[in-house]
Amino acid sequence: MTTTEAAADPSSPIPVIGSLSPSRAGDFMTCPLLYRFRVIDRLPERPSPAAVRGTLVHAVLERLFDLPAAERTAPAALALLGPQWERLLADEPALATMFGQPGEDGAGEGGDGAGGEGGQATDGQGEAEWLGQAREMVERYFTLEDPRRLEPADRELFVETVLESGLKLRGYIDRVDVAPSGDVRVVDYKTGTAPRADFEARALFQMKFYALVLWRLHGRVPRLLQLMYLGNGEILRYAPDEADLLATERKVEALWRAIRRAMDTGEWRPRKSRLCDWCDHKELCPSFGGTPPPLPEVPAAAVAPVPGPDFSDDV
Known about the structure:
The protein contains eight helices and six strands; from the N terminus they run αβαααααβββαββα. By secondary structure, the chain is an alpha/beta fold. Strands 1, 2, 3, 4, 5 and 6 form a six-stranded mixed sheet that branches. Helix 7 links the parallel strand 4 and strand 5 (224-229). Helix 2 (22-30) packs across helix 3 (32-40) and helix 5 packs across helix 6. The N and C termini lie far apart (43 Å). Residues 1-10, 101-122 and 304-314 have low confidence and may be disordered.
């Protein structure tokens, strides 16, 4: 039976050859060696204040829609910040180390100056200042839309589909809005700042990835992709069509072929960029005189996104 025939026969599911999420695809595009460290070696990483702040803001905005429409106000959202931060700390106690020990000035040697897509430095930043920036982002959200006028169809929606090649695509969508007409809007919150025009295509890749999954699942192209940048209060909107999503499908297939080649050859080449300054694995990188650990024995088909919390898509 061919792959296409198997796809049409529910009793014969397509064999999964691998799994890819937007964050892991982004890792490989940024640096194949970073992908290896995160997915193959599964090396531990320090919590990034910028990324965790993104997770906190996302949690607040998700739970804001649990409230009755009339109560979705800025003060109500700000009141959620403290409890959601306590919940994150209870789930991941290691997050408390982002700001050093009591009496230390900010993050100390454990800090992270990356700042995510917004490029906001966090070295030397204390918890109060960090929470203050989260508060500003929550307040800025209310300048972009009125949540009292919205009833999202889904929030933090996990989606996955298997392409005809057997590649499984998966990810979490911040919000899905469905109009009475059936038109779908895919919304993603970013706590960084909007990218320059020459970097918009990379920013939209994640959204097109989600749109591709939804299209393959439901047979309808989302009407609008919307990135809301809470770092500077800008919105990036894009209306995809089938040609866009077919091109995205070809891109993720090509990425997976490149990943498989790296698995087969054991060649995970580093790619230097300004992001290297904030990489937790810099000491292991050959570009900086380091030596990666021996490759573990991992079957290619078994490679999947790292389990557990993943803050990399939140900023």
